[in-house]
Amino acid sequence: MTRREQILETAADLFAARGFHGVSVAELGAACGISGPALYKHFPSKDAMLAEMLVRISEELLAVGRERVASADTPEAALTELVGWHTDFALRHRSLIVVQDRDWESLPAAAREQVRALQREYVDLWAAQLRLAHPDLSPERARAAAHAAFGLLNSTPHSALLPDEGMRELLSSMALAALGISSPPDGVT
Predict the structure, then answer these.
(1) Which of 27, 43, 52, 101 pairs with 111 at a CA distance of 20 to 30 A?
(2) Domain limits, the chain
(3) How far apart are CA 135 and CA 115, in angstroms?
């Protein structure tokens, strides 16, 4: 992990705990083991840090999601892979989910639009697989179903009452059932 990534990870944890506006640059620097002003060697501002943090996660979700879909043999397998990927992501990045949800309005306008565009592509990726698996599903309903699945999977900061492996199984099985995929296709976990 690079120093820049370490700073972003620390910032995500602090922002999740106290909110973007509740964390000063000095506090952020101290948590990273450097002075507040030394952060400016890595990021031009705290706003830029938030922007990179949220753009990065949106890019990662989309890129890995595309890889999972491309390697799947059927729409059902693709949806199983997407659910598994998103579940793992949500369990590993609880702080980022909180920051995305709570500090969205603090995101600079250009970054907000970039994140929205990436998120729309991610939703459309899921919706396309849903429509292939369920041909009678309208585009609007497929997008709504994808958003509903995200809501379930992104509940991890608040609902993770079991150890991660138990939560992974529970969330995955619930999301697949909600999407009309009764069990993982052969060879997919």
Answers:
(1) 27
(2) 53-178
(3) 29
pTM, to two decimals: 0.91
The span from the CA of 27 to the CA of 37, in Å, is 11
Q: What torsion, rounded to 10 degrees, do the Cα atoms 97, 98, 103, 105 define? A: 60
In the numeric block, which tokens belong to residue 26? Answer: 């000095």
**Calpha distance 188→72 (Å, rounded):** 9
Tokens (6 digits) for 74: 């059927």
pLDDT higher than 70, residue 183: no
Structure tokens belonging to residue 25: 């640059």
pLDDT in tens, 69-87: 999 999 999 999 999 999 9
Cα–Cα dist 55/111, whole Å: 7
Specify the DSSP class assigned to residue 184: P
Model pLDDT for residues 76-117, shown as the tens digit of each residue: 999 999 999 999 999 999 999 999 999 999 999 999 999 999
Options 1.10.357.10, 1.10.10.60, 1.10.357.140, 2.40.50.140; which CATH number does 53-178 get?
1.10.357.10
Cβ-based burial of 57 (10 A; exposed 0-12, middle 13-18, buried ≥19): buried
DSSP labels for 21-43? GG--HHHHHHHHTS-TGGGGGT-
For 137, phi then psi, to 5°, come to -80, 130
User: How far is the C-alpha of 57 from the C-alpha of 85, rounded, in Å?
Assistant: 13
